[in-house]
C-alpha cells in the first residue's frame, strides 16, 4: 500500500513540471495581447490623425468659403454706401444755402428714395434738429435734436464724412440705421443734416442670397457693436451689442486687421460657430465708424458629414478590433491545444527513446540515424563506444563513417545500401569491418532500413543498428580454418603427407566424369616399391615408414602438381592420375619417376635387384565411355604393374587393350 504522500508525489512532480511551461505560455499570450493593444493604439492614433487632418481641411475650406461670402457682402455694401453717400452729397448741393429761410425743398424726396435701392427714407434737418422735409410726410417738423445720430453729426460736423448711426428704434416703431452727411451754408457753417435711413428688408434679401447653407448666418454690425441687420432676420437681435468682453466681435476689432477667420461662441448664444469677419471701411468713403460684416456657420453643422464619416470609420475599426481579438484568442487556444499535443507526443517519444536506448544497451546495439539531406549521422553512446570514441550528441559527417569502412567490404556495402535506397529490398543486413580508433578492425553486423521517404519515394532518413560481432566472427573464422584443416587432413595420407586413397577416389570420380563429358583421355600410373617386404623385414617397420616418406617426397618432386598429382593408393603403392593424357604421355611420366627414384639412391640393404630402392610402374590410359566404369582404368594399370613386376621390376609397363577391357565383377557402367 502506498501512503497518501507517496501516492500524490508523481502528480505533484508532474504539476511542478507543467508549472513553468504554463507560466511561459501565459507570458507569451500576455505579450501578444500587449502587442495587439499597441498595434491597435497605433492604428487608432493614425486613424485619428488622418481624420483630424480631414476635419481641419473641412474647417479651412468652409472658412475660405465664408470669407468669400463675407467679401461679397462687403463689396455689395461698399457700393451701396458709396451710392447713398453720393446721393446725399448731390441732394445736399441742390438745397438752398439758407435752409431756414427756404420755403420748401426744391425736389421731391420720395422720388429720390425710390431711385435709391436699400434706402427706406430721406429727411433733411436744419441746424437745430427740426425736420424740414422727409420722404415720409408724417416726420416733417419733428424735433430730432436729441437723437444721438443728429447730435453726433452736429458735434463733429465734418463736411465729407458719412456718418453711420447705430441702429435705433424710430418713431415709426421699427429699427433703423441712418446714414448722414452735414449741410453747410455759404460761409461753411453747419446748417443742417441730410440723412437716409437704411431699408433693413432690402439688405436682408441681399444677405440671404449669399447664404449657402441652412445654418449659415450673415450679419452687418455697427463699428461700435450693435447689430444693424442679419439674415435670417431675427428682430430680437437687431440692436444687440456685440462689443462685449470676450466676444469675437471685440477680438476682431482689437486685432487691427481688416478681416479675420475666427471660431467661438456668439454672444448670447451657446452654439459654436465659425466666422469670417470683415471691416467695411472703404478708403473712398470717410465713414465716422466702420461697419463690420460677418458670415458664420454652425461648427457642428459644418462638421456633421465629417462626424458621420468618423462614426462609420470608428465602427469599422471597432468591428475589426473585435474580429482580430476573437481571432487572436482562437489562435492562442488552437496553438495551446496543438502545443499540448506536441508536448505529449514529444514526451512519449522521449520515453520511447529511453526505452529503446535501454533495450539497445541490453542488446549491446549501437543505434545510428543517417540524414540523407545533409549527409550526417547521429549515433548513440554505444555506437561511439564500439568504435572507441567518446559519446556525442552532435551529428557527424557520414563521410567519417565511410572512411572507417574496410576497403574489402566497401563494394558489397555500397551495393546493399544502394539496392535498399532504390526500394528493391525492405531492409539491408550485412557484415563488414570498421576500423577501431586504436587501429584494429572490428566486425560489425549492420541492420538498417529507410524510415522516411518523400512522397515521390526519395529516401530522407535511414535508421539502423550495429552489433559488434568481432568475437563471433573470430570464432567462426577459426572454425572455418579448422574445418578446412580437417577436410585437408581427411584427404591427406598421414604417413607420407601426399593425397590419400579417399582423395584418389574423389579425384578419379571427378576427372572420370569430366573426361566422359569432354571425351578426353585419362592416364593412370600405379607405382609399387620393389621388394618392400624384405626392406621391412630387414630394417623394421619404422624404417620402412621413413623409406615410404622418402619415396613419396622423391616422386612428388618429379611431378608437376597439381596436374600430375601423386596419391598414396595403399601400403607401398602410389598412383598418379594424368588428365587429358594418353598412354605415351603416361609412359613419359613413368620414366621420369623411375629416373628420379634411381637418382635419389635411397638405400635398400636387402634388395636382390640393387642396393637402392626401386619402383615398378603400370601405365593405363583410356577415353572414358558411357559403357566403361572407372575401376577398369585402375584394373588395367594394376595389370600393367603386375607385368612390370613379372618382367624383372625397376621398369614400367603399359596396359594392353585386353587389360583395359577387363571389368571388375559386379560393377556395371552407369550408361551401358
Ligand atoms: N613399414 C611399412 N610397411 C608397409 C606399409 N604398408 C605395407 N607395408 C609392407 O609392404 C610389404 C609388401 O609386401 P609384398 O606385397 O609382399 O610385396 P614386396 O615385398 O614389395 O614385393 P614385390 O611387390 O613383389 O616387389 C608388406 O611387408 C607390408 O607389411 C607401411 O605403411 N609401412
Automatic annotation (TrEMBL):
One of its GO terms (cellular component) is plasma membrane. The lineage of its organism: Bacteria, Pseudomonadati, Pseudomonadota, Betaproteobacteria, Burkholderiales. Pfam families: GGDEF (PF00990), PAS_3 (PF08447). The keyword Methyltransferase does not apply. GO terms for biological process: cell adhesion involved in single-species biofilm formation; negative regulation of bacterial-type flagellum-dependent cell motility. It catalyses: 2 GTP = 3',3'-c-di-GMP + 2 diphosphate. Keywords: Membrane, Transmembrane, Transmembrane helix. Residues 520-657 form the GGDEF domain. This is diguanylate cyclase. It comes from Pseudorhodoferax soli. Residues 428-481 form the PAC domain. It is an enzyme of class 2 (transferase). Its EC number is 2.7.7.65. One of its GO terms (molecular function) is diguanylate cyclase activity. Gene3D superfamilies: 3.30.70.270, PAS domain. The chain crosses the membrane at residues 33-52.
Amino acid at each position: 500500500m502506498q501512503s497518501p504522500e507517496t501516492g500524490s508525489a508523481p502528480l505533484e512532480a508532474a504539476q511542478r513540471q507543467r508549472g513553468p511551461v504554463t507560466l511561459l505560455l501565459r507570458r507569451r499570450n500576455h505579450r501578444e495581447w500587449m502587442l495587439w493593444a499597441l498595434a491597435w493604439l497605433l492604428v487608432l492614433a493614425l486613424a485619428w490623425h488622418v481624420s483630424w487632418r480631414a476635419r481641419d481641411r473641412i474647417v479651412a475650406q468652409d472658412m475660405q468659403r465664408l470669407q468669400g461670402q463675407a467679401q461679397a457682402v462687403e463689396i455689395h455694401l461698399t457700393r451701396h454706401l458709396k451710392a447713398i453717400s453720393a446721393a446725399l452729397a448731390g441732394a445736399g448741393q441742390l438745397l438752398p444755402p439758407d435752409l431756414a429761410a427756404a420755403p420748401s425743398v426744391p425736389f421731391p424726396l420720395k422720388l429720390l428714395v425710390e431711385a435709391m435701392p436699400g434706402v427706406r427714407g430721406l429727411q433733411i434737418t436744419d441746424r437745430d434738429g427740426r425736420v424740414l422735409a422727409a420722404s415720409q410726410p408724417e416726420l416733417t417738423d419733428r424735433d430730432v435734436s436729441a437723437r444721438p445720430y443728429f447730435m453726433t453729426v452736429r458735434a463733429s460736423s465734418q463736411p465729407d464724412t458719412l456718418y453711420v448711426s447705430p441702429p435705433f428704434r424710430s418713431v415709426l416703431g421699427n429699427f433703423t440705421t441712418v446714414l448722414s452727411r452735414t449741410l453747410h451754408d455759404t460761409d461753411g457753417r453747419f446748417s443742417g443734416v441730410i440723412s437716409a435711413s437704411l431699408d433693413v428688408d432690402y439688405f436682408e434679401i441681399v444677405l440671404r442670397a449669399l447664404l449657402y447653407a441652412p445654418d449659415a448666418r450673415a450679419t452687418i454690425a455697427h463699428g461700435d457693436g450693435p447689430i444693424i441687420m442679419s439674415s435670417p432676420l431675427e428682430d430680437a437681435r437687431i440692436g444687440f451689442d456685440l462689443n462685449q468682453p470676450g466676444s469675437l466681435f471685440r477680438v476682431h476689432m482689437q486685432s487691427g486687421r481688416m478681416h479675420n477667420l475666427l471660431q467661438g461662441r456668439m454672444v448670447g448664444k451657446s452654439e459654436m460657430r465659425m466666422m469670417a469677419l470683415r471691416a467695411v471701411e472703404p478708403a473712398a468713403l470717410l465713414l465716422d465708424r466702420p461697419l463690420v460684416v460677418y458670415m458664420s456657420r454652425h461648427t457642428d453643422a459644418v462638421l456633421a458629414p465629417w462626424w458621420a464619416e468618423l462614426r462609420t470609420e470608428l465602427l469599422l475599426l471597432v468591428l475589426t478590433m473585435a474580429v482580430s481579438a476573437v481571432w487572436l484568442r482562437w489562435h492562442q487556444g488552437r496553438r495551446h491545444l496543438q502545443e499540448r499535443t506536441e508536448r505529449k507526443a514529444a514526451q512519449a517519444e522521449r520515453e520511447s527513446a529511453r526505452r529503446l536506448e535501454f533495450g539497445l544497451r541490453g542488446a549491446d546495439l549501437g543505434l545510428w540515424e543517417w540524414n540523407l539531406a545533409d549527409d550526417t549521422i547521429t549515433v548513440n553512446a554505444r555506437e561511439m563506444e564500439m568504435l572507441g570514441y567518446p559519446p556525442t550528441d552532435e551529428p557527424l559527417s557520414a563521410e567519417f563513417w565511410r572512411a572507417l569502412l574496410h576497403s574489402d567490404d566497401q563494394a558489397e556495402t555500397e551495393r546493399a545500401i544502394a539496392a535498399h535506397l532504390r526500394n528493391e529490398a525492405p531492409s539491408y543486413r550485412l557484415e563488414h569491418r570498421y576500423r577501431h580508433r586504436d587501429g584494429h578492425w572490428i566486425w560489425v553486423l549492420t541492420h538498417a532500413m529507410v524510415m522516411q521517404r518523400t512522397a515521390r519515394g526519395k529516401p530522407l532518413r535511414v535508421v539502423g543498428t550495429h552489433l559488434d560481432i568481432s568475437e563471433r566472427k573470430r570464432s567462426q573464422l577459426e572454425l572455418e580454418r579448422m574445418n578446412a584443416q580437417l577436410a585437408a587432413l581427411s584427404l591427406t595420407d598421414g604417413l607420407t603427407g601426399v593425397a590419400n586413397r579417399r582423395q584418389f577416389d574423389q579425384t578419379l570420380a571427378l576427372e572420370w566424369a569430366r573426361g566422359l563429358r569432354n571425351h578426353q583421355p585419362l592416364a593412370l600410373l600405379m607405382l609399387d616399391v620393389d621388394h618392400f617386404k624384405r626392406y621391412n623385414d630387414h630394417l623394421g617397420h619404422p624404417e620402412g615408414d621413413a623409406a615410404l616418406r622418402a619415396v613419396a617426397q622423391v616422386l612428388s618432386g618429379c611431378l608437376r602438381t597439381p596436374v600430375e598429382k601423386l596419391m598414396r593408393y595403399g601400403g607401398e603403392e602410389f598412383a598418379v592420375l594424368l588428365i587429358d593424357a594418353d598412354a605415351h604421355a603416361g609412359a613419359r611420366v613413368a620414366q621420369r619417376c623411375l629416373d628420379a627414384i634411381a637418382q635419389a639412391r635411397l638405400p635398400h640393404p636387402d634388395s636382390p635387384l640393387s642396393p637402392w630402392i626401386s619402383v615398378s610402374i603400370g601405365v593405363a590410359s583410356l577415353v572414358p565411355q558411357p559403357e566403361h566404369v572407372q575401376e577398369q582404368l585402375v584394373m588395367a594399370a594394376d595389370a600393367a604393374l603386375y607385368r612390370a613386376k613379372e618382367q624383372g621390376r625397376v621398369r614400367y609397363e603399359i596396359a594392353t587393350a585386353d587389360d583395359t577391357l577387363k571389368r571388375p565383377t559386379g560393377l556395371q557402367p552407369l550408361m551401358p
